[in-house]
Amino acid sequence: MEKHKDEKMLSRFKYSADEVIEKPFNWKQMLRLFSYMKPYRKGLLPLSILMVLLNTSVKLIIPILIGVYTLDIALENKDGQLLAILVSVIAALYILSYVANYFRIKWMNILGQSVIYDLRKHLFTHVQTLSHRFFDQRSAGSILVRIMNDINSLQELFTNGVINLLMDMILLVGIFIILFTLSPSLTLAIMVILPIMFFISTSLRRKIRRSWQVVRLKQSKLNSHLNESIQGIRITQAFTQERENMIYFDGVNTENYESWRIASQKNAMFRPLVELTNALGSAVLIWFGAYLIQGNEISIGVFVSFAFYLGMFWEPISRLGMVYNQLLMGMASSERIFEFLDEKPNVAENKNAVQLNDIRGNIEFENVKFAYDDRRPALKGINLEMRAGQTVALVGHTGSGKTTIANLISRFYDPTEGIVRIDGHDLKEVTLSSLRKQISIVLQDTFIFSGTIKENIRFGRPDATDEEVMNAAKAVGADSFIGNLPKGYETEVEERGSILSVGERQLLSFARALLADPRILILDEATASIDTETEMKIQEALRTLLNGRTAIIIAHRLSTIREADHIFVLDHGTIMEQGNHHQLMDQEGEYYSLVKAQYSMLNAV
Amino acid sequence: METFKKLKMYYWPYKHYFIWSIGFLIIVTAITVVYPMILQITIDEVVVNGQYNWIPPLALGFIGIMVIKGIASFIYQYTGDLFGITSVYKLRNALYEKLQFLPFRYYDNAKTGDLMSRLTADVEGFRFFLSVGFSELIRFVLLIGISFAVMFYYSMSLTIVTLITLPFLAVVTFKFDKAVHPAFRNIRKSFGRLNTKVQENISGINTVKSLSREDFEINKFNDTNGDYKDKYLQTSYIWAKYFPLMEFLGNISVVFLLSYGGYLVISGELMPGELVAFYSLLWYIMWPIMNLGFVVNLFSQAKASGERLLEILDAENEIVNGPAPISKERLNGDVEFRNVTLRYTENAKEALSKISFTACQGKMIGLIGSTGSGKTSITQLMTRFYEPETGEILIDGIHINEYDLSSLRSSIGFVLQESFLFSSSIKANISYGKPDAAMEEIIDAAKRAQAHDFIMELPDGYETMLGERGMGLSGGQKQRIAIARAICADPSILILDDATSAVDMETEYQIQKALKEVMKGRTTFIIAHRISSLKHADEILVLENGRIVERGIHDRLLSQNGPYQRIYDIQYQDLEKISKSHIS
């Protein structure tokens, strides 16, 4: 029984896990990715390449100078003067390499970071243009990962990868040519290790990479759970599930441990195998090389040069393997990035969209239908009119379509059918920014950006003066609590911070909306989670806010609704009733029963 | 060192891995130095002196030694890794256990992000040090020591001339490390800012779009994005400044080696093979020195990580079982508060001040008052989530400190203000407090919480996954599942902390009706803003600034002209009028 329970505990939480998949190499995508280097093709790119070439040449020349010239000629002939010249040349080459290296590192980093900067900017800017539907379908976390982590994983590729690729190719070919000129037969003999090296660098490395991928997956599962268990700790303790969760955690922890162990095991094989291969090459060199020296076919200097070059062989091959790895990972990341970049805004701006000048605020829905997805129709043919300056309330159960109507007025979505008009303009014919600048929405959960109180209010209109900000705060009655904060308007606040209460946040968002001075104001459940006394204070602020604009109020509370000029009662995407409070009460219909429900709750339970 | 001593219990049980690792490391390092020596023998003995018959044993011996080295370095690395990951496995379990039991007070002051970074980055830093750091230090000493010895053996004067740049290299390395770490920190900070910026933008995208502030946001983003680029480039400039210099200093040594070594060979004091061997040995000294900063830094980072982990492990859990805890299968649910005063932190003002009341089994207590008045605090004292400063709390006549903590808490069902649900199926979420609950019990609990109907409308019903990869539920739906979760645990005392704020009126009405039956036999505490939610309480406590300012039943409170009546008036004045004209 106990054991059965443990097993149950081991699977009590479920976290998303990406599969370890390897896709065929996508050349088109790579070209697209590399096209971000295009702006630098006339400056940084060729300069960096030049530095790389200089550096590589020095690397290639030095062993010959030391082996063939110094050992064979200068030392063999005991020529002190030649030795001095050679040493000077080598020293000069080293200085050249020093300078080239300095600029190589500098320019390659500038190039790489510029590309990363451009790419991230492009992605962020693009995401800003996308519509609500895009954000509905994804968690904030998954979008964040694209913009931050996926782009960062391309960093190495662009700073070092691409150029190293070039350097290593040159290095390999260069070494091969030099060796071949020095001694074709010895070169061929040593080349036996080449296939082994390539095998290790590709196949074994792939296996190692896969096992590290498994480790990453396990680790991310472990971290997901840790994160959740901290956030839900109060629930866990309230329900005394600490012991049970420990069983689960031990399971995840063990999985993680096992995956590490396997990856470590594979990983630990890598270096020894590489070194063994190198040793094999060295043995061939010693054996066959000595034999050639004996036959006077090569000199000691050539032999030594071979030893040096042999030592240099592994580095480029290993790095090529690494760049290949980076490329594969980069491809995976860029695929996800391009997926976002290819996303078109659902609410696209019409090509000949016109500026919507100062509106009066007449809103009209003509036979509007809308569905968030194919399965659930949200609005089933709505016809309504809201007059400029009116306060209109939308009433109905959760899912009746109240918020949808508000979303269509701001054109966060386009109706599936029918037309939404403001002052007679079809919303599809006007520019988004000119429309939205004249509409403000106050949501139930006010979003506080990290920054000062002042900056948060000013978010409504970035060019507002300090005085305007304060006036707006005063008008909605927010200045009294702001005055009590340690630094007043300069107090730093943040999204998860506890400095502000729900009511205070709400007042801030009112001030924000007032500062934006919209012609149309939408309040979506703006007062739902506020205690009654705070609500009283906010009611005052609301009156200031609503004054002189078209206001659409979505609310559960009757006290907010009954003062509206016009009330629409919605149910399952259709308008059931409309009229003002008294008219609707007299009708004794849906609205009447909603009111009655509230009343009867007082008695019935 | 103190830090490592305190953490010893997590890694020292696995010392055998460590000892094996070090043992094989010594073999690996010793063999590494053999390669240049073999090269030297080949050149000097075989070629120069013509001993060509040495070749086969030399080549085969070389391979043989390298095979040994291969095996040794595999064992060295693998056991080193095992040392790290096994220790960290144990450490993680210990951390998790600690976190499970730390009191609410701890979490009030802790930030999830900070805790997470300790649990991930610091644990990883510690593992890396255990796996790599220790042995890297030993390797450093060994490699340099042996290489020096061999070089001295070949030629004392050449060693000195060649390594004359070494002090300079050490200084440059040291300066480089000094410069590069703050720079890396700046990158991390800047990345953190960029991350926050983007996260805020996405979380607040509705606000951004509804105020049409995309361009403003893009500009702000460009600033932070540019800052990140700058910080990164600043670091790479440090690299560009020092790295070629370090390499250059090494190369200078080569130049010295060739000049003086060449002279020695010409004058016959040195064999050419020895010169070649010197060339290789030189780098065995140069590379570790260039890496020294990295190793030292590893050590200091591991120390810092260890300290941060110890802060969690050593955090005090003041709320623990008494000496002889009483375990009861089921409590009756008689709750009594006697002069209870609570402060959240020592110098804070009183969150609760001299609270006294009695709630008998099966009674319903309503708590009302504005935000911060102390309603939630009262309920959280009963479960010992916090401990009062003075006063006592009794359940069934026994001081709650005498109960076994888990038996106490499992008798009290909580619906907390924030309806947190776990990444699991709806079924598992409802049965969270009672994992072996039968399906009928789960469905029954859901029905009572008015959650069954909407659950059945979901594509996978009770198997629907919630959380990060699951369905997004509305606030009201989450609250109803949270209520079902509390009902399913079948507690003697039920606490509903603003549990229905996000459901619409009619649903709340349904929940209230259903709860009425659930409450039978249970003591219930209801915290609410809406009068309608607690009107029928057997006693209503009206709180203001941590004090009970009014108490009594609804009807009596309505005639007292106090805060309760004021709240009522705000909420129901209209309704009274309406009811007069329309309903009656």
Automatic annotation (TrEMBL), chain A:
CDD domains: ABC_6TM_YknV_like, ABCC_Glucan_exporter_like. The keyword Phosphoprotein does not apply. Residues 363-597 form the ABC transporter domain. SUPFAM superfamilies: ABC transporter transmembrane region (SSF90123), P-loop containing nucleoside triphosphate hydrolases (SSF52540). The chain crosses the membrane at residues 44-70, 82-103, 157-180, 186-204, 273-292, 298-317. SMART domains: AAA. It is a multi-pass membrane protein. The keyword ATP-binding applies. Residues 47-329 form the ABC transmembrane type-1 domain. Its main location: membrane. Keywords: ATP-binding, Membrane, Nucleotide-binding, Transmembrane, Transmembrane helix, Transport. One of its GO terms (molecular function) is ATP binding. Coiled coil: none annotated. It is found in: Cell membrane. One of its GO terms (cellular component) is plasma membrane. This is ABC transporter ATP-binding protein.
